[in-house]
User: What shape does this take?
Amino acid sequence: MIGLILTGHGEYAVGVAHALEMIAGKQEAFKVVPFRESEPMETLEQNMRTAMEELQETTDGIVVYADLLGGSPFKAAMMASVALENVEVVVGTNLPMLIEIAMFREFASDAKAVVTQSLSAGKEGIQHVVLSTKEEQIIDEDEDGI
Assistant: This one.
């Protein structure tokens, strides 16, 4: 199984993790590493290293999902992953990608496969949805076609 770490600013990672659990159930080999405003960067970096070390003992690789490219959680993930093998970092995390991966990662061959699948699911999860108005529905129903 591929281990997952979810990180982000404030309570982002905690909230998304809770939503994931509501939808996909309790996750194994899953760590949440929030970056709280009251904590120094060193604490975030240490928490990230600890989470990676714990997951590395029981998984076939790790994917870290961060909220924002260039942010402190992203930087901490990159710094902690340098010394480890089979650790990948993804940014721009959204709930659709995590739901997809919650079910896929148990059978994934490696962390890169999880990244590929999650990027696809994350992109598909972003859509612009527009509801038609009642006037548009009435016009469409009255037309006989061409």
